[in-house]
Amino acid sequence: MEATPLQNITAETVAKSFYDHWVTRFGVPTNLVTDQGRQFESQLFKNLSELCGVKLKRTTPYHLQSNGKVEHLHRTIKTAIKAHNSIKWTDTLPTVLLGLRASFREDSNSSVAQMVYGTHIRLPGEFFDNPRSHTEQETFVSKLQQHMQQLRPVEVKHKTSRTVFVHKDLSKCTHVFLRIDRVKKPLQPPYEDPFLEDDRLFSKSTTSLAGTTFNYVNSIIGSGVIGIPLALYSAGFGLGLALLIFMAVVTDYSLILMIRGAHLSGQFNYQGLMRAAFGRPGFIVLSTLQFIYPFIAMISYNIVVGDTITKVLIRMTRVQPTSLLASREFVIGLATIFITAPLCLFRDIANLAKISFLSLVFIAFVLISILIRMIFPFTYVPLTEDAWQLFSWDVIPAIGIMAFAFMCHHNTFLLYESMEIADQHTWNNVTHVSLFSSWIIAAMFGVMGYATFTGHTQGDLLENYCPGDDLMNISRVLFSITVLLTYPIECFVTRDVLESLLLQVCGITHTTAHHVIITLTLVTITCILSMVTSCLGPVLELNGILAAVPLAYVLPAVCYIKLEEGSVFSGKKIPALLLALFGLFVAFCGSVLLAIDFGRGDSCIHKDMPYWRLDKYLKITENFWDIVSLKDTTTGEDFFKVIEEAIDAWSKECHIQRLKPMGAVRRERDHDDTIVLSIC
């Protein structure tokens, strides 16, 4: 029984290996049975056989039984290699062959070595007993000693019953192995490394397809979706809608492409996929981008919470804007301590399935509120001069915002492994449903938000609504909760990247202490950074251009092109090639525009919208002849002067011509001490 690793399978290499490892040890065989491989059919191998006096025989095509002993030996060797937790199978092979040669065979009542040599072969003593001596240096002998300590003979039992065996000590054991049920490499071990009892939370529980879809949509619908109205305004309403459809289709294809690449490489994580395609440089590039995107997304989520909840607290408590409750830093800190930090300490994304469903319910309420305010506005919002234009030149920033809104590629493998039925076909269906649902939500946000505010649209859609609008204040609270429930999904990814780097670079395994330290560090840093910035629009654009576009469109495409067999210009690879070129073009143009904006010193400052100005005193409608009411908060002519100044400022900022002089303004007091103005 011989098995030899080969660097290649050329005819010369195979012939030399046959001579060196068989003929020189056991002599020349009389007959040699081979399959119809090109190496054995070559003239070189035939000449060697004639020289040695060997009679060659070939197996029948598509009839493996004719060489069944060798095929069975291949299966046995592969199974034995998988049982060893070793990255280099070539180091494991000699020990596997030693065990197979020394193992007792029931059919012949002897071992292979006994049949060849006429006697048993001696095995290393430490294969059975604990080591009696220890070597200090890291030499071949010490490595062999450690390897032998991991091996113990196991009694073979043949069972006819198919009842699942559960060991009686499973509930109190100190270590557990985790079986890998996904598609594996040919020689990949079927079980993951033993984990301590404290690390059992690392086990991957699964969720139903509906739960996976909820997690899928929830990972997409984050802070980016409220920037869609701004994207429609930047690209023009007509072109913006076309781009939104295009980005959804492209994102759907890229997500499917990622799992295809995973099946080709046998690596079901983004880092492993890049390493299989481009080696260590690809792993470093991917790890950097995969950390940047969710990290900035976590910052944007905190910004949304700080900006929206403060307005609600001011409205509810009637506190001054300078008080502690009106401080966005205070709100972000409370949300971090009591909501996001505890949720981020979970280790399994499947535990968030019910929470994800709850967040989708909140999103539905927010959409209904936006629809109500589009039909029944709280205050009159004048159209801007560039409202409803079909095309605009700010296409690249719009693509960046949309890419950020649809981005969930960093969560792809977490979602895939959480599925009960994890295969390509099921993943395709779940992806189609999730992306279609997300596109509907994003399109509704975009169309209704743009229709309400047109050119007044801000990066955060909810910032456009008046602080006194209680319906939208409820929506602000619910959307903030949704964002806070999406925050842990992004934290899972950043933590996974750091843990992978610690394992790959430093050799540090996952423990509960490391899990807690890394999680709390990430949450704390993002909390501090979100406190020092309140500019959501540029954050969305920056993350979309620099991280989302490469992660979503460039890297999945180039990985698939690298791993799939055939020419780059083959029918299978052309769509992936176009996807990669599209992503590179957007990333380059977006980076140039960001650099130009940074050079100009562009910044965003939160300010009251012009149509809020009059809302502090009265509720005004589109018809300037309507009669409006307001509470008398001042007295006499001072009150009338305040109203007139507010109307003048509002008319100027909204670009509405107002006749001068104002004309007669009839002031009366009704029964509840409300002043009624008839504005002409």
What does this structure look like?
The chain has 680 residues and is mainly α. It has three domains: 11-149, Nucleotidyltransferase, domain 5; 217-598, Hydantoin permease (Orthogonal Bundle), CATH 1.10.4160; 613-678, no CATH class. It is built from 21 helices and nine strands. It has helices at 11-26, 38-41, 43-52, 68-82, 89-102, 112-117, 140-149, 209-220, 228-235, 237-265, 270-317, 328-344, 353-375, 395-406, 412-417, 424-453, 470-506, 512-531, 536-563, 574-600, 636-653, and strands at 31-34, 55-58, 104-105, 110-111, 175-179, 191-196, 627-631, 666-669, 674-678. The strands form four sheets. Strands 7-9-8 form a three-stranded antiparallel sheet, with no helix packed on it. A two-stranded parallel sheet has the order 1-2. A two-stranded antiparallel sheet has the order 3-4. It starts with 10 loop residues before the first helix and ends with a strand. The model is unreliable at 154-161, 198-204, 614-639 and 653-680 (pLDDT under 50).
CATH topology of the largest domain: Hydantoin permease
What is the makeup of the main sheet?
3 strands, antiparallel
Q: Count structural domains.
A: 3
Order of helices and strands: HEHHEHHEEHHEEHHHHHHHHHHHHHEHEE
Which short descriptors sum up this protein?
680 residues, mainly alpha, Nucleotidyltransferase, domain 5, Hydantoin permease, 3-stranded antiparallel β-sheet, 57% helix, disordered C terminus
